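A reminder from the course coordinator: this example appears on the midterm review sheet, so study it carefully.

Given structure:
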């Protein structure tokens, strides 16, 4: 997969992560989608590095999606923890 495919995957993974973790984020939609892109890269790296499951070259591989969404969830949770509660 090329860099454009990872960005598209990250945008979609960020949207899915946002659906799985509803609520207001301190940064809004733009920051959430950027977190999704970074999460896709993080999830792919973790999957290839420590889980010994190399990321497929295909966009429609299930393990690739799970890794991207998982990475997005991790970054979104960390962002919410470190940025504080936006509802105050």
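Designed residues:
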């Amino acid at each position: 997969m090329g860099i454009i495919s990872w960005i598209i995957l990250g945008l979609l993974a960020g949207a899915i992560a946002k659906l799985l973790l509803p609520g207001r984020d301190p940064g809004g939609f733009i920051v959430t989608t950027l977190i999704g892109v970074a999460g896709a890269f993080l999830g792919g790296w973790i999957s290839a590095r420590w889980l010994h499951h190399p990321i497929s070259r295909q966009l429609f591989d299930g393990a690739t999606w799970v890794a991207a969404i998982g990475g997005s969830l991790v970054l979104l949770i960390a962002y919410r923890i470190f940025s504080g509660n936006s509802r105050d």
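The helical segments are 3-20, 28-49, 62-83. The two ends are 41 Å apart (CA to CA).
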